[in-house]
Design goal:
Length: 284
């Protein structure tokens, strides 16, 4: 039987996500061999680029999408968080793996109660944590999860950073010499849209074939979160956050602060659209 080819970035976290996908497909489509194709994205090549200033959309996804469109791969495995809301024609999200812990974690040098210097390249994280640490000086940080942990532990760049619990968990990291991990609750830090979820993207022709791999609960939440982000006109360079849990959606936006809304059954999409429209209207 022809193998299913998974396109993935080569970072340690991306490779873990590809392995998870392989294991998940082995369960839902037993007997189908799965191969992993590593692809370097612009974001992997341009390690010195500021994600805020030169970031642009799709820095970690574009080359994976190209592999789908030119037939090199059947599925592109993405961190849902890194995936722009606009998708090239002919591509769709076929499935989401069950979501990992969606929380963010403040990683601080041991013995530092209030970090004066925090490094993060995420405007979402900075805008939210500024409320807890108004006097902190903020800088950007790049690199894989372990690179960032090393940078903070050796103290050259900052005294603290913020990481996704999901990434740490998937890499099997639950402590680091010289650092303390402090999980942030949702009121301090609304997660990024899609955080903790792995999205399986395919061509339109293959969507139905891989729909069997979809975790319905994750899919519903992340699709609603992405709908909110799209309505707010955001990518990862805007401080917009959204997280759906059961019948609630938590949001944060730099101009509108924190909000919690209820999503009535059967009217979830309309409620998200109306809420986004009401926020946009108040900023006119
Ligand atoms: N932007 C990089 C990125 N993309 C996804 C994750 C973590 C895993 C996830 O959220 O699913 C990370 C690292 C981080 O934010 O700490």
């Amino acid at each position: 039987m022809d193998p299913i080819i998974l396109a993935t970035r080569g970072s340690p976290l991306a490779l873990k996500q590809a392995e998870l996908t392989r294991a998940h497909l082995a369960k839902v489509m037993p007997g189908r061999p799965v191969e992993i194709l590593k692809i370097k994205t612009t974001g992997d090549k341009r390690t010195q680029w500021s994600l805020e200033k030169q970031g642009g959309k799709g820095l970690f996804t574009k080359e994976l999408e190209e592999a789908l469109l030119n037939g090199q791969a059947h599925i592109a495995v993405h961190s849902a968080k890194d995936l722009p809301t606009e998708m090239p024609a002919g591509l769709e999200l076929a499935a989401f793996l069950p979501r990992e812990n969606p929380h963010d974690v403040l990683v601080v040098q041991e013995g530092v109660a209030k970090p004066k210097f925090i490094a993060t390249s995420s405007p979402r994280r900075r805008a939210q944590l500024k409320r807890c640490f108004p006097c902190t000086v903020w800088s950007e940080i790049r690199g894989n999860v372990d690179t960032r942990l090393k940078k903070v532990a050796n103290g050259h760049e900052a005294q603290a950073t913020i990481l996704a619990a999901a990434g740490l968990k998937r890499l099997g990291i639950d402590n680091w010499p010289g650092l303390v991990f402090k999980p942030l609750d949702f009121r301090q830090m609304v997660p990024a849209v899609g955080q903790g979820a792995v999205a399986l993207q395919t061509t339109t022709e293959l969507v139905s074939e891989f729909a069997i791999a979809d975790d319905k609960d994750t899919s519903r939440s992340v699709r609603l979160e992405r709908r909110f982000l799209a309505a707010m006109g955001g990518g990862c360079h805007v401080a917009t956050a959204g997280f759906v849990c059961g019948s609630k959606m938590l949001t944060f936006h730099e101009d509108h602060g924190f909000n919690e809304i209820t999503l009535p059954k059967g009217e979830e999409e309309k409620t998200v659209d109306d809420f986004a429209a009401s926020l946009i209207k108040t900023s006119d």
